[in-house]
């Protein structure tokens, strides 16, 4: 099975949790895309009715619109029934790293407003500890003096051999700009950052930081699709 086929299997399994009448958080990324497609399909077939979708990015907003999924926002629906979204990393405690697609702020706002958050991944996303894959742990920062903020972030995690890099487009080295008009500083760790809650609090203390990509204690279920089948992990 290809990685995309595994993503689709996890996504379709998650959509089994959707009931008619629900207000849903619609995730962003290549895994969540399959879930949103599936919801659109079931709505079209009449197997689901009265669904309201709250998108976690402009990209998902466009996808949901094209599928005819009725859309709303957090102002109108401050509490949601269920969110379905992917992740870049999942640790054994169901802590996540998200945001390599750049949508972490709206994802965290939406998923933080949900009674249930079902995270969908292929098995390649499973890690021993968050930030341990050597891949990016994204931090959304205001563009104003981003270098100042990036240095403060790097200094925070000097003990973990952290390097912070502004996320730029490969083709023209221009800064990536989020849906909210901010920049992203990606943090790369060489060692375990230790207490995640303490790390999260320290990051959010920095005035130039808007939000970070660690989703701690937020997922209520993680659905993992692997070569040997599907695993459902509940909090
Ligand atoms: O950027 C994001 O938060 C996405 O949800 C990401 O974490 C997962 O993207 P993928 O499903 O394309 O791997």
Automatic annotation (TrEMBL):
Tell me the domain of life: Eukaryota
Where is the protein found, in the record's own terms? Answer: Membrane
Which positions carry the signal peptide feature in this UniProt record? none
Family stated for the protein in its record: Belongs to the ribose 5-phosphate isomerase family.
Q: What is the protein name given in its UniProt record?
A: ribose-5-phosphate isomerase
Task: Write the lineage as a comma-separated list.
Answer: Eukaryota, Viridiplantae, Streptophyta, Embryophyta, Tracheophyta
């Amino acid at each position: 099975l290809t990685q995309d086929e595994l993503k689709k299997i996890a996504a379709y399994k998650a959509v089994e949790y959707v009931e008619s009448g629900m207000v849903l958080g619609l995730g962003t990324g290549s895994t969540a895309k399959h879930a949103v497609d599936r919801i659109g399909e079931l709505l079209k077939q009449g197997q689901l009715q009265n669904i309201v979708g709250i998108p976690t990015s402009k990209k998902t907003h466009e996808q949901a619109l094209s599928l005819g999924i009725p859309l709303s926002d957090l102002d109108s629906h401050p509490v949601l029934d269920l969110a379905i979204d992917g992740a870049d990393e999942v640790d054994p405690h169901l802590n996540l790293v998200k945001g390599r697609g750049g949508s972490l702020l709206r994802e965290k706002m939406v998923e933080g407003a949900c009674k249930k958050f079902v995270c969908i991944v292929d098995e390649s996303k499973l890690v021993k500890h968050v930030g341990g894959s050597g891949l990016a742990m994204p931090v959304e920062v205001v563009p104003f003096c981003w270098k100042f903020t990036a240095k403060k972030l790097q200094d925070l995690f000097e003990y973990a051999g952290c390097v912070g890099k502004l996320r730029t487009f490969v083709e023209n080295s221009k800064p990536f700009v989020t849906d909210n008009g901010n920049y992203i500083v990606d943090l790369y760790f060489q060692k375990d950052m230790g207490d995640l809650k303490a790390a999260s609090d320290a990051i959010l203390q920095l005035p130039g930081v808007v939000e970070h990509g660690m989703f701690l204690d937020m997922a209520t279920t993680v659905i993992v699709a692997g070569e040997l089948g599907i695993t459902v992990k509940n909090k």
